[in-house]
Amino acid sequence: MALSGTLLLTLMTMAPPATPAAPATDNKSCLRCHAMATLAYRDPGTGEIVDLAIEPHALSHSVHGELDCIDCHEGEFDRYPHPSDAANETLSCLGCHEKDDTEDNIARYQSIDAEYAESVHATSDAPEVEGFSCHSCHDPHGFRASQVGEKIAAIVRDGNQVCLSCHEKLRDPFSPHHAWLPNREKHWDAVRCLDCHTPLSDTEQKVSHRILPPEESNRDCVNCHSKEPSLLNRLYQYRSEEDLATKGWLNKAVFNDAYVVGMSRNATLDLLGLIVIGLTLLVLAAHGYGRYKAYQRTKGDPK
Amino acid sequence: MNPIALKPLSPTAKRRLIVTALVLIGLTLAYKVLYPLAFESYVGKTNAPLTYASSTQLTKTEFEALAQELSTDARQRKAAAIVDTDQEPFARQVKIEMLMNTESFIRDTEPSHIKYFREAGIHHYEGPQTCLHCHATIQVTHGDGTVKTVDTLGDIVNSVHFKFQSESGGFSTYGYDGRQVNSGAHKIPVGKINRACGIPGSFTWTGWAALVESRPEHGEGEVTMRSEGCGQCHIGGNYQPATEKMMPIGDVPSEAKDGIDCLICHSTAYDMNQRHVIQDAKGLRWNQDRSLRAALTVGPINSETCLRCHQHNMGGDAYRHNAAAQALGHVNQRILHRGAKRGNPFSPHDDTHAASGIQCTDCHVPEGHKIPRGRKGVDLVANDIPTKDVTCESCHTQAPHNQSEHKALLNGHIARLACETCHIKELEAENVVLRDWVHPTWDPEEGLFEPTDIYRSGKPGKGFTFLWFNGNGTFLANALGNNPNGSEVYNPLMQQVARLDDPEIIEAVRAKAIELKQQYPDIDVDAYVRMATDPLSQLSPDMLAKREAMIQKNLRAAMNQGESRIYPFKLFNAMMFEDMTNQGPFGAMILPFDYASYYETGDTPASVKKAISDPIVQRMYQEPFKLYMMDEFMSYFGITEGWKTVYPLVDGRLENVEPHWMRQMGTLMVNHGIQGKGRDCIECHSPDGIMDFRQLGYTPERVAELQDLDIIEKLEERPASAEAREKTVQQ
After folding, report:
1. Which of B301, B318, B350, B598 could form an S-S bond across to B607 if both were Cys, CB 3.0 to 4.6 Å?
2. ipTM of this predicted complex?
3. pTM of the predicted model as reported, rounded to 2 decimal places
């Protein structure tokens, strides 16, 4: 279950595990309550439902699947009800990821941090953005980077769901947003929001964390619909090398896995097309020449 | 002008045209006149113009006198409600009088139909035709927001309230043969109309209206006439239910449509004392309140109007706050059914929604005269709007608990538990679990023989049990569902609903059997107790094996569908006479009783003989009915060999008819009688809790975990504000 909202970590007042003898230290004790799919409460301040449920399968398959709950949640969560000051616990990715990671990873997180600082989610002064953090998009209990070889359609769907969980009004058929975009629904099914809403750059990141506001986002069709689709390449990096080599074209053109007008080209087909056009022109020219010749003959032969 | 029309027809063509026209006219006449007559004689039912004594013509003066009385009454009630009751009585009286003479108050409290009737010059209420005078069509708002204008009479005639059956798809019921009822090409009418049932002991054809001679002992042998029958709660005023609606062609005759009782639902001052059986030249039928008083007080539908009939199946007839039981009839008083069907009353005294003024139609949002009963259903009843939800969540959301400190944990339970599981803590004590129709008991006060209730209880684990439920049910009303762990162990049709093993219940049944033996010396107490508490013991080993195999093969899929949650289910079983020629692993065709002879003589075989002599039951045992519906009915019933048309009454003797308990208990949904405060944790989470986690299909490890709620112990250990916590834990 995807955790909507996601600011959970700072809102864990209601969470509940315990064993009678020893304090609870294993995930099982926590999940005894937190695996309840409907563990939630309505926040008296906002009226919003705060979801405290963890989907055990998603957790164990997430990037944090190897960790114990208490590795991150260091407060006194071994008792139920959890002490109210545990709610003040703040968790940031960098807290862990800068502390004991490899040089490379630390550099990566620093560049993410720099990108994010320029993101619309960080710079906007809209009230909804208040309190935005990594966890707003990356559910720490289910987040898992897309893997090479995964189905592109699934990557697109899951990726877009992250954005749509807040930007829910976009899907409204009468929404004026993206009205300029031809085949709006088809685009949403085939392209990630991120593909257009991040700058075209050649950083090390698979995709930039600098989310662009609408007016700065990419509107140039050619960035995808061309032989060098710089935007789409970011999505198609998840297709395995082998997959690309063996059935790349077949997938795109025949199985329609993701057929992109202008991009999914085949040199042989192009050549064949040229030859057909050339031959047609040739036949036309020959026909015209024949007619001309015949006319000449009747003219030069008065009865 | 059309040139073809001018061309003179040839004599042959002319003849053909005339013949065709004649044939068409003949067919129409046959359908309109001959078919109804033939049908009436085939099923042995009557139709005639229906008249009611309460429907009288008033003079203008009488009308105005009545109007003034009703207007004053309404004003008086409203004024009294507004002025505080804790005021000094005289001051209160003066204030009420001031309001009574206030112009806007007079205008706004007068029943609206006084003005309408006065303007239209209506001084006589003549049933539906009077209503249709203005309401010939109504606007129906559907769930998706579309608004349609429909014919009012057609809308009501085709509603479950009138025909109490439906044959379209959308049933949540599965036959024991594994097929969803009426999902295939061969659709049969199903609903209360053709369903013999152990609770009423008869069915609508044979038990529509009866006049019973009672001999109360305080009356010193004098005979008092009493009314009984299914028609008391159904809106048709005819001599029988809307039988025509069960057939593939034909319609209810207009006389029957004129008998529809609009006012029992729409009037705020309907006199339930008018609701009793009357006899005329054509037979027995139910009387109605067709007075102008009832018609002039038409108002919006509210819980009170619905409960005139529906408290019967919720709190029960004898429920202390059942208003209808206070008005049993000016004459031929209705017989009160003791032993509640569900024992979960909807009234301000026992239901938190009723107490807060929620009306029935706030949850059961009608679309015209079609009223949704929700998508989940075990007891095979017709459903007007099978696609429409009636749920707690639609108002309460997925996070309904807001008061308790443990609100998140309580909300967490919703993934596995229905709200009713905690918020219906107990049913009425009158709730009947085991009813013996075969051995009636004399009720000296009523002067009647009544079926003997062998066991009544409203307690969890006794009067009701907890089962997984995904919204599906079997053809004989057993909840289907399964533990979300995909358990192979959970098998209620062999366990929870097929066996009563609580020693307390067995002891109570034994005591009752010993009591019955004094009247019926033939009773073998041990055998009686075994049959009543272990109904599967009545099956041969072959049948039992077949039953187990059919459950696995045919029902597992329907059990594993969707998402099941644990719901409370009222349990019910009955001993009735059964036609053993049509027996299968899940039961045999039960035979109805004739009410009058049953109540008067207590001679149950004679009562069965009388009921099955009814022409429609005889037709049931004939080939056309077999092909039209009974074969299909049997297949759903789990009888693979089809319907055997061996009529069980030969030369005045019952052939191959035996008294039996049904092979499993019916499970009825309970959704009313909701209490604001739910159960305590330890009611379930303890080794002797009310929920049998093992039978619910949990693994032994999980059972141990669920029974040992260390969190609660921990809470009790906590020194700081332990008492306060204790309090909130219980919320």
Report:
1. B598
2. 0.80
3. 0.84
